[in-house]
Amino acid sequence: MGVRKVRLSQRERRHRRVRKKIFGTEARPRLCVFKSAKHIYVQLIDDSQGKTLAAFSSLKLGAIAPGDEVGKKTVAASDVGKHIAEMAKQKGIQSVIFDRGGYRYHGRIAALAKAAREKGLDF
Fold first, then answer.
1. Do 89 and 120 contact (CB within 8 A), yes or no?
2. How does DSSP classify residue 36?
3. How confident is the model at residue 7 (pLDDT cuts 50, 70, 90)?
4. 4 half-sphere exposure, CB direction, 13 A CA radius
5. From CA 109, how far away is CA 66, in angstroms rounded?
6. Torsions phi, psi of 8, nearest 5?
7. How far apart are CA 55 and CA 21, in angstroms?
8. Distance (Å) of CA 40 to CA 27, 37, 107
9. Residue 56 in contact with residue 33, Cβ under 8 Å?
10. Domains, the chain, with CATH or none
11. Range with the largest mean pLDDT of 6-15, 62-71, 88-97
């Protein structure tokens, strides 16, 4: 088994372990994060109805020119956090449960969470 497969299966196990404990409702949905090598995706999910209330990703931000900024994926994650917080506010959502998706709370995940908190989302 390759290193990539081992890491993926470890992340999936961590995510299952975290998901046992958290459950999103309509009043307090789950803020679910997924990151790929290039992009980051976020959803606000109501687990009681099985519905996605809002979603945003770095794909919608457009491309950042090469050499534009240092740490451009982290900057994009921060922008995604700001956008999802604004979308949540428009839907009347003040508080969420953060689901880091089995990833370490570090780098892009932490930048997204920090930006969402700065825009007024409570978690």
1. yes
2. -
3. confident
4. 2
5. 22
6. -65, -45
7. 22
8. 24, 8, 12
9. no
10. 3-118 (3.30.420.100)
11. 88-97
